[in-house]
Amino acid sequence: MSKPQEPHRPFFPFGNPFRMISPKGSNLSPSLLALVNSFEEALSARLRKLETVGDVLSLTWMQCAMESLCETHEEIKKLIVALELPVSDWDEKWIDVYLDISIKLLDISNTFSSELSRMNQGHLLIQCSLHNLESNSQQQLARACSFLNNWRHQRRSKNPRLEKCCSFLDGLMETLNLPKVKNSAKGKVLMRALYGVKVQTLFICSIFVALFSGSSKRLFELDVAGTYLWAEDFNHLRGVVNGIIRNQQSSQHDSLVKELLGVDTAVEKLYPMMQDGSMTGKEDPLQISITQLRAEAEKLSSGLDLLMKEVDSFFHAVLTGRDALLSNLRATCTATESAEGKRIRQPVS
């Protein structure tokens, strides 16, 4: 007996965030409008650029996406400085949201780093295999075969941290419903910009999870309202990228990363040929397969190096932003306590 269909769950479980974060133009000065428009136009440009950097399933595209995300996080820090909004004027809810988001982002970044480390370890197995294949020794051939077999076993294993990463993304999704801003034009600008940061972050991180895991279940599906200057570019990019990932999804692979699948294909072609221990002739099928594996391994290595650097940069951008806020909070508290102490010590006239 089939289960009754569950009622449709609203995407935003706590209400409509657009009503809360969209600033009314009449409340913003020309300087504040210029700040928020500049931020949103730059975000639009970064989103458009991601449509021109190649195959969505490649490490190269992932590197460009993470670079774009780092730029957005750096821009929000610049916007906060430009707003000249003292930390002492921040609503307590804003601070809580910001700190909670930063913790989740650091966890997500660590998860991506762990998956890239796993991929790098797999690449080392391929390199060891290729090194042993440089000799015609039957003993080294056996070692090469063993390394390839270890690669195949590793590829069938899963990173448990990826599943945990999904819960972090769910937590970030809930923070799209930002605290309500009252009587603060600068606060409305800040919340509006933070919304753009979080949407891009959720989008990019959901793509990483999909490509690493081979599953499209966690892809970000939100259509952003047209009140944002970057909405059209985002909605178009999201539709294109998510469509590509769904079309490529295969139950045979735990990853959709192009370079990783390239090595997989070369290994699965070479491994059976090595079982008979034959290594005769430089142009026989075995040698051709070895050459193909070496080429695919080089693509994987190059892409991994660049992507790992960008993921590290993302971690650093989030961490420095968090540290700067905490430092300002401590400085504000110290100044407040000092001022209160002086007032207490003043003699009564």
Automatic annotation (TrEMBL):
Pfam families: BPS1 (PF03087)
InterPro entries: BPS1_pln
GO biological process, one term: shoot system development
Name the UniProt record assigns to this protein: Protein BPS1, chloroplastic-like
